[in-house]
Amino acid sequence: MRKIKYLFAGFLALSMLSCDDYLDINDDPNNIHQEDIRPDMQLPGAMVMTYRVQARSMNILGNIFMQNWYADVNNYTGVNTSDEYTLDISNNFYDDIWDGLYVGVNNFQQVINYDSQDYDNHKAVALIMKSFYMQYIVDLYGDAPYSQAFLGQELLTPAYDNDADIYRALIDNINAGIDLFYTADSNDAVLGSEDVLFQGAINKWIEFANTLKMRILLRQSELTDATTQAYIQDEFDVIATSGVFLSTDAFINPGYSDATDANMNPYNNLFYNSSGSAQTYYNYTRASAYIADFLNGDINGVTDPRGSVLYELVGSSSDIVGAVQGDFNGPSELSHIVPVMPDADSDGILMSYAESRFLLAEAYDKGYLSGDAEMAFYEGVQASFSLYGAGGFSTYYSQIDAIAGLGWNGGNHMEAIMTQKWLATNSVNPIEAYIDMTRTGYPNIPLATTALYSNRPYRLQYPLSEYVANSANVPVIPQAQLFQVGPFWKN
């Protein structure tokens, strides 16, 4: 990691004159003074920057690891995904996830640190968003710089914190953010158009904060020690006092448009440029054979209507056609990916309502909260159909109800939740499905035929930038250990 990352990388000087200006990034810290950047100017840029990492690199990795996508190397050789198949995880493997998230989170920290008592609403948002993205750092890497990571020139080589300790700090951030919303007064600046997620709706932010807190708590719920379980239950009891969770999809849109590639929805820009021409990933990416078989009903006997929305149908059979990951001699005609964010100006999907419902189903089923787990599960599947714009929900739901690992009454609630969450996060936020599979073992997704290990990595390798700029602190992790030891919630 370059030292500037911890200092002030990615400064976003963002004008309030136009939503499009939120997309303008000033990467030169010498041209701007920190004290001149008000929270209402810096916050939207931080949100846009971190979401870009989520929508692109994290989305690609999640889709490939979870067998949603296949690389059509027969017809296009513009990208190489052999490492994702072989699982040759080096310190260059998706290193832009670590680097990009730290740059963005540093900007959230600058909002939190702003020397004024008049921006409590903005600081609350920054605290919550800091937790949102630092959770992914822990989930994907384990121990990480945290308590010393955002001190600027005071410390350019931060120590690594224990990942379990970071998780506790993330919960504290969320609690502090919610408290700031409740205690903000008439002297505090009102969230306005710079809130590119909820447009200043504080009630939506509290719903989102509770949902994020639930996600963080559930991630560690497989740990059985009494201390951890008591902590989880205590924090769920705090959540229960408000009892509100994400009630709509959390869409982010700072003014995406087709003016230039940089102004486009970052996920859509993977597939098309601003003039509408196909990009590398449209030409290169196809359905995998496993997701094709699953959605076509070849594995469980039920055709999933979401398939025809997510993938182009091929041939007279009108099926999804995929190729086996690792097999470079697949069918000549394969199903293209249909972007779930279809236009340059499409809203980005930070967190879906479907995910919120599946989190609630798990919390209810495990007894952390009181509620109807089956109804929450039902609502999660229904919300997924709605988000994708797929029809036939009622018929599909009745068909899967008693199927093991797919429907609620199939005998294994956890497997059903995780399988449906996998289907609901396809191309939306599939890194969640990968992390949950690491945590729970569900769903049981096959490896590529060229995989060198018997399971996917439980965590990723620290990037080369850390070994260059923070070598005294970054742990040295042998590749084999990535497949044996995960974050604290896995071990």
TrEMBL record:
Top-rank taxon, per record: Bacteria
Protein name per its UniProtKB record: SusD/RagB family nutrient-binding outer membrane lipoprotein
Species for this entry: Flavobacterium sediminis
